[in-house]
């Protein structure tokens, strides 16, 4: 059973590594976005009072899109923080695992 639990923990750390990369990229994209940019609908610039309905996707208004853009900028640092924590955890685990393996400690 010990090796199964260890394999599951390794899998969790691999997922943490990829999750950390994903969260960091999303956070950096949100950080680079302009919260004051004029909202668009299917590539067309919207005006106050406009409503956007994209086939097969969600609908939104001009004002709700502005709120979403500002919220994305506000949560960018939180998203980057989560990504960094996941990345650091995974990297520290793999460094520790390698150091223990070099010393002959079986995990």
Walk me through the structure.
There is one protein chain. The chain has one domain (about 1-100). Helix content is about 65%, strand content about 10%. The strands form 2 sheets. Strands 1-2 form a two-stranded antiparallel sheet. The chain has a two-stranded antiparallel sheet with strand order 3-4. The longest helix is centred in the C-terminal third of the chain and has 41 residues, at about 60-100. The protein is elongated, with a radius of gyration of 21 Å. The protein contains 2 helices and 4 strands. The protein is mostly helical and about 110 residues long. The protein has helices at about 1-30, 60-100, and strands at about 40, 45, 50-55, 60. α1 packs antiparallel against α2 (about 60-100).
Write the layout of secondary structure elements.
Layout: H1 2-32, E1 40-41, E2 44-45, E3 51-53, E4 59-61, H2 62-102
Antiparallel strand pairs: 1-2, 3-4
Low-confidence stretches: none
General shape: elongated
> Count of helical segments?
2
Strand order of the largest sheet: 1-2
Quick rundown:
It contains 2 helices and 4 strands.
Summary keywords:
107 residues; mainly alpha; two-stranded antiparallel ribbon; 2 helices; 4 strands
């Amino acid at each position: 059973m010990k090796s199964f639990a260890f394999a599951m923990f390794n899998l969790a750390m691999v997922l943490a590594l990829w999750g950390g990369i994903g969260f960091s990229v999303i956070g950096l994209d949100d950080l680079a976005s302009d919260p004051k940019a004029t909202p668009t609908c299917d590539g067309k610039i919207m005006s106050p009072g406009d409503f956007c309905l994209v086939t097969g996707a969600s609908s939104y208004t001009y004002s709700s899109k502005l709120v979403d853009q500002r919220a994305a900028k506000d949560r960018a640092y939180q998203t980057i923080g989560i990504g960094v924590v996941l990345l650091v955890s995974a990297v520290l685990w793999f460094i520790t695992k390698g150091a223990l393996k070099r010393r002959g400690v079986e995990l």
